[in-house]
Amino acid sequence: MDQNLDEKALRELEQELHTEIVPGTEIMIDVGTHHFVKAGTGGHSVLVPQPSDDPHDPLNWSPMWKGLAMMCATLVSFSQGVGPLALAPMFGDYIEAFDSDLTAVVQFTGVAILVLGFSNFIWVPVQSCWGRRPVLIASSLICFGSSIWRAKANSYNSFMGACVLNGIGAGPAETAQPTIIADIIFLHDRGKYQTLYFAVYFGSLMVGPIISGPMAQQLGWRSFWWLNTALLGFVTLCCIFLFPETKFNRSFMPSNSMVSSSPPMKEGSAEQFESPAQNHAETSATDHVDVGKTAAVQLQAPVVVEGAGLTHAHTHEDPYLGRGKPSKAQWKFAQPYEGNFFMELWLPWKLFLFPIVEFSSFVVSWTASSFLTLNLTQSQAFASPPYNFTSTKIGFFNFAILVGALIGLVTAGPLSDAIAARLTKRNRGIREPEMRLLAMIPYVILMVIGNVVVAVGYQKAWDWKVIVIIGYTCAGIQVAALPSISSTYSIDSYKPVAGSIFVAITVNKNLWGYGFSKFITPWIIKSGYIPPIMTNMSLILLFCLSGIIFWFYGKTFRKWTRNSKVHSM
Question: Terminus of the chain with fewer CB atoms < 10 Å: N or C?
């Protein structure tokens, strides 16, 4: 639970609500004498996590500062994702330029995504110990340099070296934004922002081929990398001047809260009636607090709730909610060292032992590989008879995947948030992370349809319109939706280690992606399109269906890890 309550208060809440509160379980309503900051004047939706009363707390930032931070994080996810998969429509150009073959040039993509995954073993500990800001700036600069190298490369080995450097620099595209979302966004909105991240990141992987194909044909393949260099330079400047540090140590107990684990004060004592909130003359509607209700609670002695023994009173009034701004210290390149760098290096491996993280890792990995399949096979399928399409036209087919991703963006996040909110209401205001999993059902169905259409369509040489409009669009929808829902489930369960969760997810995803890129081309040549694509689809379906286990036993798995140190990192 994320409301900054002590152990005794949690146990009393359990007695009052007749439920067990474990990490990930959140109380979204007031209980007895426990009152929390809410999402609107007179509102009943409790904010999770509870913000501090510090104006520099990123949770308290004004919409403008939150918007700028999210914009920069989104630009980083987009700009660093464009390069690695933009190569597909240009494979023919690289075969000619470097006197190579298809199997060899496909490795430009495979090596980049493999290095990208493992680079996060360094980037995430850095962002945990020194902050998010140095990671965004440094990684963008590295990608900027690698893009210049690619534009100037004159040999296969030189271009491969640029791909390796790009993989090192692009790691934060897969881990930084989820951590920043957890830093500045409240639980009830987290689903839609996670979907934004996945839609933008995977969208960048789709936009890259759309742009690179026509540019390679009209202006030469080097021109694309100069365009990419300009984009990365712009994003670097945005991060330097518009992105303040979002890493923030929120005090366990807000200074204007009343949480007492000691016996009740003597009736009528002056101490009993003194409320820290009286230091604030007024609160406005932007405080997101029910002022009348809060004042009534704060000006009376703690009330004992019959049958529950509740003697705690938690009444947190936040005068800066929605009106805060970054401090000067948050504009430094890096924050003072904090934490344990070597422990952070080990943490992603430890998280592989957590069933919920493992579930998210496999769902994200294989649903992403469904998109990777299209990227790696589109030239092989459509550049040969009976289609004989140019690289420009093949690149434009990615518009269908992009449209699908946009559909996933506008539906998956709001749908998972709405389902979780409805189930929370039915559950007496108690939210469990597993409530999001129901939202996966329609997208699993679309995933199956998309993969069947593409595999059979390629093999039987169907009309390209059927393959692209139905198959590619369904692939785009599911690649934005299923990873966002499953990864948000892990973050809701283990928020303090959101960055390390995405290291585990990314390594798992990129290892499979690298392996898939190694064997899919010769497998297709030997057996056709149906066996590899349908095998991949079957694995996606298997891992998604395992969500049924987590629907019934997810809370049990969270109980197993309730005493883990990851909850206090």
Answer: C
